[in-house]
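Why predict the complex rather than its parts? Because the way molecules touch one another can change local conformation, and only a joint prediction can capture that. The input here totals 542 residues.
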Amino acid sequence: MDKIKRNERLGALTKLLINTPNRIHTLNEFCALFGAAKSTVSEDIDLVSQSFARFDLGVIETVAGAAGGVRYRAIPSREKTRRVLDELAVRLSEPGRMLPGGFLYTSDITSESATAQAMGEILAARYYDRKPHFVLTMETKGIPIALMTARMLDVPLVIARRDSRAYEGSAVKINYVSGGERIETMALARRAVASGQRALIIDDFMKGGGTLQGMVDLMEEFSAEVVGVGVMIATARPERKRVDGANALLILEGFEPDTGRAIIHPAEEYL
Amino acid sequence: MDKIKRNERLGALTKLLINTPNRIHTLNEFCALFGAAKSTVSEDIDLVSQSFARFDLGVIETVAGAAGGVRYRAIPSREKTRRVLDELAVRLSEPGRMLPGGFLYTSDITSESATAQAMGEILAARYYDRKPHFVLTMETKGIPIALMTARMLDVPLVIARRDSRAYEGSAVKINYVSGGERIETMALARRAVASGQRALIIDDFMKGGGTLQGMVDLMEEFSAEVVGVGVMIATARPERKRVDGANALLILEGFEPDTGRAIIHPAEEYL
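Output of the joint prediction:
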């Protein structure tokens, strides 16, 4: 194999790190791939790391110790987070998004991969230190955001269903209170979660918090520990939610009576 | 601003291209960001492009013309595609995946972000030239793969629902035949698709093809054109599917009677 110059290594190195967010790569892995010395690969990594820091593209960090190496985390700066949430609030307050019953039409935005990824980056950044083993969501609208959060954390996504389908095998079912009144069912394949695992719960929308509390109850059935609850949008009212300690990125205050536009803004901690 | 050296540009340039697959960036965009001449940025792009080609990391290509520039497409080589599908077939034939009724348990694999991304890369590569405006899937299990396919194509994802929910506004509903016998309902928000758009249909599993044909019928209601139908796994039987021209990545032949292991392999065109 020809000797590979630094200029030719940097693109590949960047791609390999970004492709697997939060996964630790050993220097040896890159030494073998590029036929380069450790000190050389180390300098390459410093260059990519500086480049990312300069342009607010996330963090390349070296992890010390026996299981050490280098990893990429898509941690957005405070300014970038604010910019992303502001832009989203503007889009969500476009006219025509108010639906009968005071609901907000968000399906076009929640299933955009770029938006889901941006949300996933912000949510993951908040929960790295809780070390979840998996992300849990309830079908359907939260799946893209939950998947991207799981991707950024390098953990599996687990999807609770409205009913237990034949192709999921034996399942645990619970009842929960949705929309303040209706009793609904949520099911999860028995093999999806192991006892003692740490769950991060992610969903797109929280009004009363009943669905999220249902997911908390479901995790209790599996003897799993809930280490965080994150949602894209929470309504300002009711102030008291069925679930405790959920973190929202955006707060929906209500709708302008004349225009029907949503009044929505980033949550206080992001202001 | 200090002058930014090539070594410091390459990491950022790579990240910005990969972050937005299939999106065309103008050279001017990078010239402004890096304070560099067009010829310099052009050389940078060539370096990243060579690095990607050498390590089978996808394609960085220059697009000529008035709307021209440079874009990243995650096109895996034939060898890489084969390797990904072989590994997946091995995992799917692990013991214990056969469920009552001859179903295959795949939820753990279909909702892994890395697997969904690998599937999305292979599926997108097949449909770039059909220029879909959006990817359509039916909730729930196909969503991660469909989302990643949409991400690679840089188009929105549209999710058909089992029922029309209050928070989606007015919807189009159709009936379709699932599992060869049952009549089921599929719904999609009226505002989700515009007349004349091109749809790429993606799902995780095809047995009879009824659900996929339902999505084709649904697109007819919206006067949208279906430019492709792609699935992760198709069963070998029934040979005749309700939907025409679907492309599968993997073929499920059946299950070993003694062990219950799935007999599954890459589709012929990938062998």
